[in-house]
Fold this sequence. Notes:
7 helices
Amino acid sequence: MQREKVVIVGSGPAGLTAALYTARAQLNPLVLVGPQLGGQAGITHEIENYPGFPEGVGGAELVERMRAQAERFGTRYVYSSLVEADFSQRPFYLKDDVGQEYLADSVIITSGASPRKLGVKGEEELTGYGVSYCGTCDGFFFRGKDIVVVGGGDSALEEGIFLTRFANKVEIIHRRDELRAGAILQKRAFENEKISFIWNTVVEEIIAGESGTVEKVRLRNVKTNEVWEHPTQGVFIFIGHEPNNHPYLGQITMEDGYIITDQYMRTNIEGVFAAGEIQDPIYRQVATSVGQGTAAAMSLERWLSAKEAEEAEKTEQVEQ
Length: 320
Ligand code: NAP
């Protein structure tokens, strides 16, 4: 079985930064990239709040730069996703979705989070047929169409604004009459002529037409309980995220599904660290993930050095 000193699970900003730092510490890290290089940042059209890029930078470009930078110092990448982990044995046992097994002395979990689902009828069946969770990925298919965006946070507004490049009309459906999004995005959305809002309303069902793609949504006003069918050709859902925690459930201490870490990015299992959105339900920024990835890598390096020194001392004592 492949034995590794450091395995980093995930390749978002936290993972790629942890890779850079552990590579520069000569630890020869292996990154299990996961389903999407760069995670959520990798499919973000434009990142305007990452320091050092006054004009903004495309998410794909930023993560490619991070990937190449970590590779330059010896990071290795495997394009698979973790499906199984056993932290009860040392070295730790890991298995990916192509059946490759690994033994790892230490692990940094940066598996991030995935878009939350609405959980309504039609959503799953019509994903890819008019239902989407990514404007950057799918916006182009909605040229000249009328679409709805669900959510009232930064993502909904940012993606809604982006989608006006393609769509004829973007209606933002929000369950309250007040947005969660920050002031700058709110101002931009309110000023955009292609955007309108449907307030105090939830989607109850997504309905396909004869062509098998989205034709309408069933909506309900949460204040009046009025229910009606609303024609639309696309449904973009941005209602937050769920941590990608499946392989670690029952093994690592979590709160609301997020891994708990201390100030050194340590989990409750010695030798297992976590960084980025898998342990951060609050900030979730590229800049904070980069900082957490740095801290996790530095803590791991110190832990590994101390452990190696301890083992060398033990061997010396036995030999004497
Ligand atoms: P979020 O801030 O958690 O907002 C989720 C939105 O979806 C909220 O408006 C929420 O409504 C709504 N919602 C949640 N569950 C729902 C359901 N079942 N049905 C209908 N609506 C539902 O998530 P986000 O917008 O993805 O942002 C996540 C984090 O990333 C935030 O910290 C955000 O600041 C950050 N972010 C920043 C930027 C930027 O700075 N440019 C861009 C994107 C994201 P309520 O408001 O009623 O709870």
